[in-house]
């Protein structure tokens, strides 16, 4: 009985500290050595596909094929421009330019990268308008794919630009950026982060990401 309790405690520690390394990239990284990333332990990569309603990343297809050939679980991301077209229009654009999802066990749901605007932090939107824009995006993505997208953000941006809404905490898995030794405060009512972007550098290019669970959990996220 006692041995069992100790073992259970040890297993619990192992389970709660499980993590799978990965990374995210865009065309800025040029040519990426996906096979070397896989050999070093990475098991997933999130690849920039689109921005706004007209921009497509010129390296998306090369990156997606390279990641697939290396055996990585992979998915696309969309850089939100809430100062541009509607959320649903941007979700449609993303979906038709790499952001789709299929139940093949190695495609992550698309990720909505929503963060500091190039010209103003909240793109000139009120918190209510921002929440409405995000709602429009995630609902359209869900109706196109059957999955809710991942939402990438920071604690500060989410508090400032959405008023810390918890509206998406039970539907959209959280990808939280914080370049520090711990993930810090989780905003928006999410119980935990699904992926932590812990650094804006990575040995093989891009940013370093950590899936908050084991490889089986990552596969479940991909499989829906
Ligand atoms: C935002 O929500 C989180 C819960 O997810 C809470 O811990 C935090 O205190 C909130 N921040 C503010 C500024 O209200």
UniProtKB/TrEMBL annotation:
What's a single GO CC term here? extracellular region
* EC number per UniProt: 3.2.1.17
Recorded hits in CDD domains, A to Z, give:
GH25_CH-type
Cellular location(s): Secreted
* Keyword terms of this UniProt record: Antimicrobial, Bacteriolytic enzyme, Disulfide bond, Glycosidase, Hydrolase, Secreted, Signal
Q: Predominant location of this chain?
A: secreted
Reaction catalysed by this chain?
Hydrolysis of (1->4)-beta-linkages between N-acetylmuramic acid and N-acetyl-D-glucosamine residues in a peptidoglycan and between N-acetyl-D-glucosamine residues in chitodextrins
GO terms assigned for molecular function: lysozyme activity
* Any one biological process term the GO annotation gives: peptidoglycan catabolic process
User: Family assignment?
Assistant: Belongs to the glycosyl hydrolase 25 family.
What does the function comment of this entry state? This enzyme has both lysozyme (acetylmuramidase) and diacetylmuramidase activities.
Q: What's the protein called, per UniProt? A: Lysozyme
List the source organism: Clohesyomyces aquaticus
């Amino acid at each position: 009985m006692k041995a069992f309790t100790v073992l259970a405690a040890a297993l619990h520690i192992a389970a709660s500290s499980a993590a799978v390394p990965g990374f995210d990239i865009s065309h800025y990284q040029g040519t990426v050595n996906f096979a070397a990333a896989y050999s070093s332990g990475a098991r997933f990569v999130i690849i920039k596909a689109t921005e706004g309603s007209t921009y497509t990343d010129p390296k998306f297809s090369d990156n997606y094929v390279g990641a697939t050939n290396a055996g990585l679980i992979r998915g696309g991301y969309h850089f939100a421009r809430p100062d541009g077209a509607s959320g649903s229009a941007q979700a449609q654009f993303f979906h038709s330019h790499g952001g789709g999802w299929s139940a093949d066990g190695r495609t992550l749901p698309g990720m909505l990268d929503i963060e500091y605007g190039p010209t103003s932090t909240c793109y000139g939107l009120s918190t209510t308008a921002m929440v409405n824009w995000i709602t429009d995006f995630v609902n359209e993505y869900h109706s196109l794919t059957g999955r809710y997208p991942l939402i990438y953000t920071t604690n500060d941006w989410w508090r400032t630009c959405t008023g810390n809404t918890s509206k998406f905490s039970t539907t959209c898995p959280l990808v939280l950026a914080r370049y520090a030794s711990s993930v810090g405060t989780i905003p928006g009512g999410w119980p935990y982060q699904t992926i932590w972007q812990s650094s804006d550098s990575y040995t093989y290019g891009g940013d370093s990401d950590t899936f908050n669970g084991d490889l089986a959990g990552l596969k479940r996220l991909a499989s829906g």
